[in-house]
Amino acid sequence: MLRYAPSPIGDLHLDNLQIAIVNYLVAQQKNDKFLVRIEDVNVKEMEEGKDTEIMMILEKFALKHDSVFHQSEHLNLYQTLALRLLKEEKAFVCKCQDENSPCTSNCETLIKKDKEKQYVVRIKKDRDIDDFVILKSDGKPSYNFACATDDMMSDIELIIRDKKYLNETDKQNYIKKLLEYKKEANYVHIDTLKDAPSVKSLFEQGFVPDAILNYLIIELNPSAPQEIFKLPDAIEWFSLENTPTTAKYFNFEKLKHLNREHLKLIDDKLLSTLFGFADANIGKLAKVYLKECSTINELEEKIKSIFRQKDFSSEFGEQMKMLSDIIFEAPILESFNDFKLYLIEKSELTEDELLKPLQKLLTGTEHGVPLSEIYPCIKSYILEVAS
What we know:
- By secondary structure, this protein is mainly α.
- It contains 17 helices and eight strands.
- A three-stranded parallel sheet has the order 1-2-3, covered by helices on one side. A three-stranded antiparallel sheet has the order 4-5-6. A two-stranded parallel ribbon has the order 7-8.
């Protein structure tokens, strides 16, 4: 079994999501189970709903889990195992509260039934490991004790996690050894993305899950057989052995490029629903604008500009009003060339005089994607657009 163990503090960032994706991919390749463990026992101020938010994000990325639990459900287990280690004299009561430093006094001589409330339980030191806290004075387990115990109880065989946890490995293995757990887990530590933004912030900017996932995987397997892919494709070829030895910095431009390519792959009608339509032509219109846009938000602004009420008091307002009146009396014209020639004839404007006011009338801007590409997508809405 493999596991992903996020802590529900703040928004989930891309480096953390990267770990979830890798664990899921490897679980699928091994035909193994994928467990989600919410590490909430060492959180001082857990933000309400962050655990639910994490699970919703995993669902958006189609990272299906076989089981999920909160560490806080296991408090009694941690305390029971700590007491067992005390009874077996593999741990001792200590008044030294600092989790990051070994005992600094003769605490091992404390009587186990000491009435003093402010004490911790520490694992006795080994030849290569100093003593360290496993149970804090509030009865909650230390990070390493909870982590090692849960990995042991869940029978986690392969632990893929961020490289920042590398120094915790010896302590966790030592805990398992003292608890007489025979199975040895393999650890893989990954250098995750640096300066990674939150997943939530990228969603708010209009990036789609497939593009984010594509980006996070290709940063770990830069020699992937294809640049643009989805999760099922990556299951076929992703390799832990090919992950880089040094972390990369977040590349916003690369993500924008991948997002643009994934938006092109979305069904036209489905894409249009992101902008309040159910019309394949609006999806085609959005894809036309992918020449100059990269996100859903940017596309939405372009489409809103087309359907927004036009200002005839602005520059070219007089010509725009004239063209609008002509359009309202015009027959349905299939091609942009026929549409343009009709307007030239009725307005008596030259082509050069026509194009800028027409561009502003139809799109709300004077420049941008040629009208010859836009018109086929909006001709059925032409009266609404030109008003």
